[in-house]
Amino acid sequence: MEMHLPASHDFTFPASMRLKSVKAFDLLFSKGKRHWASPFEAIALEIPFDEERPLQIGFAAPKRKLKKATDRNRMKRLMRESFRLNKNELLNTCLMQRKGLIVLFISQCNSTVDYPKTQEKIKLLLQRLTIEHAQTAG
């Protein structure tokens, strides 16, 4: 017996949701609003709604902070996993308000952070983004 979860409990992170466009990154850094939950930062920008891609997400771990590639990759992996498990509220807000959002999560720590702390901080940033996105839509 296979159990299907409703779309609101979809824990995937499809390629269509990944932020890849250089234009989008430039736009984020020039016009995006920054949110902090130390040691993580989220830069968010509202964009025109696209049914296929209401939410686009990117992850970064600067070489200046984390020297080893394995550490940078681990931080990005932990942030991605935390996002994947906690994204539903923000995604539902985007779909209900019919407004698009691009977000870049950046690790600002000098060493890798354990998973529970990463998840707690990413969850906090997602809650802030959800609240702000719901308010600006009104």
Q: What does it look like?
A:
The chain has 138 residues and is α+β, with helices and mostly antiparallel strands. It has a single domain, classed as Ribosomal Protein S5, domain 2, CATH 3.30.230. 43% of the residues lie in helices and 20% in strands. It has a four-stranded mixed β-sheet, sandwiched between helices. Strand 1 and strand 2 form a beta hairpin. Helix 2 crosses helix 4 and helix 3 packs parallel to helix 4. The longest helix is centred in the C-terminal third of the chain and has 22 residues. It is globular, with a radius of gyration of 15 Å. It starts with 21 loop residues before the first helix and ends with a helix. 25% of the residues are buried.
SSE diagram, text form:
Blueprint (H helix, E strand, L loop, with lengths): L21 H10 L1 E5 L2 E8 L7 E6 L8 H18 L1 H10 L2 E8 L7 H22 L2
Parallel strand pairs: 3-4
Antiparallel strand pairs: 1-2, 2-4
Helix pairs in contact: 2-4, 3-4
